[in-house]
Amino acid sequence: MINWLGEVIIPFTLVAVVLLLTRRYLSHFYSPQMGYANWLLLPVSLIVPFIELPNWFAVVSEGQSVQRYLAVYTGEPLSAPAELPLLTIWLAGVLSLLGFWSIQHLKLINSQSNWQLATNELLHHEVLANSALKVYRTQQDYSPALVGIVKPKLLIPKHFEHLYSKEQQQLILEHELCHFNRNDMVWNTIGLLIVALMWFHPLAWLAYLRFRRDQEISCDQTVLARKHTTCRINYSKALLVAAQASPPLGFAQLSFKEYGDKNVMFERINMIKQGYQKSKLVSAAVLVGALSVMSAISYAGDGYSTNDTHKSSKKMSNLADHIKPTVRIEPKYPIQAARDRVEGSVVLKFDITPSGSVSNISVVKAIPENVFNKVATTALAQWQYETSASGSTNNLVQLDFMMDDNSTFNFANLTEQITVSN
């Protein structure tokens, strides 16, 4: 799991920074709905580095790929002691957060004995007439809230009719119904799971807070679309009234005043008052930027991928090279060489078929001679590369064999001394 975190930390950080900066400086130039949808890139960033896409458009020239890798002797599991405490700490953080949220949610669910199915009078609202959303009365004073993931329920406080005017009641119900129709409860749960997995990352917490704000703002704009000014004013007043109430914390709930501290409420009210200046150019730029980020993530996933067979291996190839293995088997350190503490390098020439398999392997140079040739060739034969239209020929890879990190052996770049011919 620590390896997985190492794979996704850079893409996750990159996307989080882009989304936060975009929200900070460009949010007034595109719709709140688009701003909310942009957050979908964050969970995608956690899986894109592992998605292998065929490179059907690549026409690879001879000798284009020159790679270099380091194989470290693993007679003893050098990395295990270091990884175990990290895994324990990370797992403790994940379980603590999930446990805390689950307990709070169970407390809320256990209060169901005080919930009563809403009367017909409340259900007469045209907003709820054709909805499958079930409405319940509670004895609490907090603002209306959605509770649950699979079958969400709308909780209405006991003083709902007294706190809000008829128009405000309708707008609030439209707001909660908007969350229900968009399955926001599911997305919020996914967001919390991401926070739990990335609990050590400050941007994960900040991104989740901004995500929830954008969720509320997009719902506000959906409800107020094509509404008159008086209606917008009444809606803003309803937000101020709701800000005085605090619903209990739950793992899966959505309140009309969710994240309703005064700063957030004022932000929502300002968005209602000011709206946004729709710019097709900025919207297109955001879309292109998002696609560029995803492409960068995909490339980063190739550049920073690690091998699960030996966690102590270190990649030394030039990350600018276009061709990279998707499956890389580490060579086994020869027993006699390990006993004698012999270190060295082997340069291999090979072809890549259109399906991505390795063929025509030959030893071009080895230091020392005939020590690491066999294990290097055996390992390379099991490598797998991305599929392509025509494959590739005359590729070079240098495998360096090192006993430990304290090695004083001079691992020269032997590929610079080689001219490859057919």
TrEMBL record:
Its main location: membrane. GO terms for molecular function: energy transducer activity. PROSITE patterns: TONB_CTD. It comes from the Bacteria. GO terms for biological process: protein transport; siderophore transport; transmembrane transport. Keywords: Cell inner membrane, Cell membrane, Membrane, Protein transport, Signal-anchor, Transmembrane, Transmembrane helix, Transport. It is found in: Cell inner membrane; Membrane. The chain crosses the membrane at residues 6-22, 34-51, 84-103, 185-208. Interacts with outer membrane receptor proteins that carry out high-affinity binding and energy dependent uptake into the periplasmic space of specific substrates. It could act to transduce energy from the cytoplasmic membrane to specific energy-requiring processes in the outer membrane, resulting in the release into the periplasm of ligands bound by these outer membrane proteins. This is Protein TonB. It comes from Thalassotalea euphylliae.
